[in-house]
Amino acid sequence: MNMVSSIPQNTDPFALAKELSGFHLIDGEMVKAVSGKTFDVVNPATGAVIGQAADGDEADVDRAVQSAAAAQKAWKKMPARERGKLVAECGRRLTEHVEELARLIALETGKALRTESRVEANVLADAFVFYGGLASELKGESVPFNPNMLTVTQREPIGVVGAIIPWNVPLMLMALKIAPALVAGNTVVVKSAEEAPLTVLRVCQIMNEVLPKGCFNILSGFGPECGGPLVAHPKVGKVTFTGSVETGKIVSKAAAEKLIPVTLELGGKSPMIVFADADLDKAVAGAVAGVRFTRQGQSCTASSRIYVHESIHDEFVAKLKAKADAMKMGDPLDEETDIGTIVSPDQMERVKGYIQKGIDAGGTANLCSALPDDPALKKGLYVQPVIFTDISADAPPSREEIFGPVTCVFKFTDYEQVIEAANDSEFGLAATVWTKDLHTAMDATQRLEAGFVQVNQNLVVQPNLSYGGIKKSGIGREASLEAMLEHFTHKKTIIFNMG
């Protein structure tokens, strides 16, 4: 193990951001970009620059991949349970740093500390503990092929895994990629999101106290200059990506050129169906959680299409708006804040553009909550949540992924029509059903075209719940044993002729 001096917790996110500025982590060491270039990391709540990230390119990618390839030779030979113990130990150490990680991710992404960032930091640690305990499941089978032959299969690691992660929940989504990859015997190179490079770098730093050097490397940079070379590198044998559909297509094409496997977790336009017999208060609370108001709607599983039975529609909308109005928008680091910011100016303009498109299409935009009145936040990227009513099913906010605090509420009366409407999307990531009738729930969950369907609840993805989409929402599954076995190993068949 690469046991360096224990890293103390630093809960001052501003000081920590400066400490981490300008580095990749390659081969167990904090290093500058080969070019020496950096780019600014900005606090979206104030517009202030809080640090810099190393601006990686092909030379940095090659250095990281070569380190990972060298480390994998010994890592794959380590007994699986020993690898699992080290990964679980990473989780234990990350637990000790939950508060500093939560504060830093709130600073660089604008996600509220109490409602979002602290929760994510805890899930991060849990994911490593969860996968560490699954190491003994990396087992093969005996095959009854011929009585004179001993035929068995065994699971083997792929090699070097390239992981490209997004900015909305970077800690959790990174953990769900690299934890199973490491336990399975692979080594990893992560390309962070340019909007959120610092907290994941801190995670890598903490984990490199435990893991052998080269097993976990992290780069920051932009897609074409850093992500592209990572996917294309000849020693990368697997790519796992979370992000937009358009970028996912680029990643998939590049991986196809090398004929290597790829896992894609892409966009969503998740429907929520509330039947007349649903527990209304429970459904409203589920919508508040499902739209991800506290995350400014920046979630691919967000319930951005809500279908409510005509008999309870008006009451549902009134209660949903009242709940959203009661939420406080403010400084992400303030414990009183419920709703933080949009992550970047570009994303803010995208969200505002969709709101205007909805209005132009004749929808009623019900504004919720209130913008913060603190002068220090006047440059912050704050958008009031919007509940659209009386909007066409063909309007852009109804059909396209916004990734903002916007949801469209539709009336329905007919069961067959609402199922058809819910499925009328190019996406198929998540869906929820709200009813007290078991038959309705069973039938709807079978017929909805989504990879992650829930009844009378709206949980976010977490370890031990297989997660992934169909249609344009992606390829493959994450967060489960199946993800480790199917996406981070290949199966070898071995035959002993006993005749």
From TrEMBL:
Stretches assigned to the Aldehyde dehydrogenase domain: 34-494
Segments passing through the bilayer: none
UniProt entry tagged with the keyword Oxidoreductase: yes
Family annotation (Gene3D superfamilies): Aldehyde Dehydrogenase, Chain A, domain 1, Aldehyde Dehydrogenase, Chain A, domain 2
Name of this chain's protein: Aldehyde dehydrogenase
GO MF, one annotated term: oxidoreductase activity, acting on the aldehyde or oxo group of donors, NAD or NADP as acceptor
InterPro entries, alphabetized: Ald_DH/histidinol_DH, Ald_DH_C, Ald_DH_CS_CYS, Ald_DH_CS_GLU, Ald_DH_N, Aldehyde_DH_dom
Keywords for the protein's UniProt record, in alphabetical order: Oxidoreductase
Pfam families: Aldedh
Highest taxon above the source species: Bacteria
The family this protein is said to belong to: Belongs to the aldehyde dehydrogenase family.
SUPFAM superfamilies: ALDH-like
Active site: 265
